[in-house]
Amino acid sequence: MSDYLDSLETRDPQQREAELMARLPGLIAKAQSVPGWARLLQGVDAAQINHRSALAQLPVTHKSDLVRLQQQAQPFGGLNVTPSHAMRRLFMSPGPIFDPQGQGEDWWRFARPLHALGLRAGHVIQNCFSYHFTPAAFMMEEAARKLGCAVIPAGSGQTEQQVQAIAALRPDAWVGPPSFLRIIVERARELGADISSIKMALCSAEALPPRLRRWFYEQGITRVMQTYGTADIGNIAYETAVGDEVNEGMVLDEDLILEIVQPGGSQPVAEGEVGEVVITSFNPDYPMIRFGTGDLSRVLPGPSACGRSNVRIAGWLGRADQATKVRGMFIHPLQVQEIMRRHPQVQRARMVVSGAMSNDRMVLHCEVAEAPPSADLTATLISAMRDITKLRGEVQFCTPGSLPDDGRLIEDVRSYD
Question: Measuring CA to CA, which of 231, 241, 380, 386 is 20 to 30 A from 308?
Answer without folding.
Answer: 231
